[in-house]
């Protein structure tokens, strides 16, 4: 073979190899779900590969080279984040530009993409002239991530409800147990049959309440994702009167006076088990943490605004040092007085139950003067 033939043979082989390599590259790109774009900053045009067009919803018949305003293509909530990354790369602060954001398709919908680019040509002043990059459709991936996050939130919600449920069971049953203990002590000390009969009647009431509590707790033991389960229309004043009745022995034992001054016209849609627990906790605490030199006096008042139903529980007890404990009052297992029965569960539970229905609770307290707890619940009848 002559030198000339060898030369042409090498050229032919090179061209053949080049075509094969070009074919392989093109095939790989078109079948890898990766779109390619080539941006010309001088005339502000961009060339898209077939896959990039598919991702963006650009018709195949359209000219490959189109004027491109990428600010208009990116979701308004993502523009600033993407712009910051692009500018950093154009300024040479990063080797490449990479961003996950939502981009506008031709059909008007937004989809999540992973966009990666790199400046491949600059002018003599260092300004970018040409940028090439890849585009990957990650919309399904983002949907799966959102679905996983949603399920994770549900699981966290369920765990929180389960924890609150267990605390409520312990707290409520302990309250009933304490009532039984006190009643039996009073029964042993009763002076006549009339007093014993009266105590038996109270004992039956407490037992009935315990049965109702157990039934209610059994009803909510099935954890639900809906906070609206077990909602009842509660006549607030009567409901509080019933709660006060269950504390008869404690009230007598401590000479407590409770004034239920709640407006008799107020009805509230709320979880009855939660409301019973909230009232019992606040009243029990007001009695438990009474001032040693005076009998407990508790005022329960109400106020209705356009947005809220407001309940206040005001006592004349020991009070709490808010400067010292203000940020810890509603934390779990936090106690503030040397009371052997204190567990630090009641206020934590109360706050969680109120917030479960988009309400709030605040406290104002002065040591040796007393405390006022203010509950705000949404007025849904607005």
Helix content: 40-55%
Reading off the top of the CATH hierarchy, the class of the largest domain is best stated as Alpha Beta
Radius of gyration (CA) equals 36 Å
Q: What's the number of structural domains? A: 2
Q: What fold name stands as the CATH topology of the largest domain?
A: Heat Shock Protein 90
CATH architecture of the largest domain: 2-Layer Sandwich
Tally the helices: 11
Biggest β-sheet description: 6 strands, antiparallel
| Low-confidence region ranges | 14-21, 219-227
EC number: 2.7.13.3
Catalytic activity: ATP + protein L-histidine = ADP + protein N-phospho-L-histidine
Domain PAC: 97-150
Keywords: Kinase, Phosphoprotein, Transferase
């Amino acid at each position: 073979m002559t030198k000339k033939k060898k030369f042409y043979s090498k050229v032919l082989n090179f061209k053949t190899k080049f075509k094969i390599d070009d074919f392989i590259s093109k095939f790989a790109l078109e079948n890898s779900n990766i779109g390619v774009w080539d941006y010309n900053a001088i005339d502000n045009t961009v060339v898209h590969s077939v896959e990039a067009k598919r991702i963006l919803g650009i018709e195949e018949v359209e000219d490959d080279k189109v004027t491109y305003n990428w600010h208009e293509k990116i979701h308004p909530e993502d523009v600033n984040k993407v712009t910051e990354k692009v500018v950093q790369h154009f300024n040479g602060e990063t080797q490449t530009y990479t961003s996950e954001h939502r981009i506008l398709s031709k059909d008007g919908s937004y989809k999540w993409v992973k966009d990666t680019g790199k400046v491949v040509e600059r002018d003599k002043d260092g300004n970018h002239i040409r940028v090439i990059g890849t585009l990957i459709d990650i919309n399904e991936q983002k949907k799966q991530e959102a679905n996983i996050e949603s399920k994770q939130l549900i699981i966290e919600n369920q765990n929180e409800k389960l924890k609150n449920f267990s605390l409520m069971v312990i707290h409520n049953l302990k309250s009933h147990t304490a009532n039984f203990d006190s009643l039996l002590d009073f029964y042993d000390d009763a002076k006549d049959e009339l007093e014993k009969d009266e105590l038996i009647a109270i004992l039956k009431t407490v037992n009935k309440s315990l049965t109702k509590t157990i039934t209610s707790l059994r009803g909510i033991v099935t954890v639900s994702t809906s906070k609206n389960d077990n909602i009842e229309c509660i006549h607030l004043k009567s409901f509080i009167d019933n709660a006060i009745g269950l504390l008869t022995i404690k009230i007598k034992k401590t000479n407590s006076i409770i004034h239920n001054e709640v407006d008799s016209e107020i009805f509230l849609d709320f979880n009855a088990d939660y409301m019973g627990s909230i009232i019992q906790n606040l009243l029990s605490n007001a009695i438990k943490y009474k001032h040693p030199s005076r009998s407990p006096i508790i005022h329960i008042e109400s106020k209705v605004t356009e947005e809220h139903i407001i309940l206040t529980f005001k006592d004349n007890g020991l009070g709490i040092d808010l400067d010292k404990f203000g940020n810890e009052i509603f934390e779990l297992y936090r106690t503030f007085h040397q009371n052997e029965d204190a567990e630090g569960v009641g206020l934590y539970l109360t706050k969680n139950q109120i917030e479960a229905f988009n309400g709030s609770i605040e406290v104002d307290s002065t040591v040796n003067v007393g405390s006022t707890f203010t509950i705000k619940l949404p007025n849904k009848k607005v």
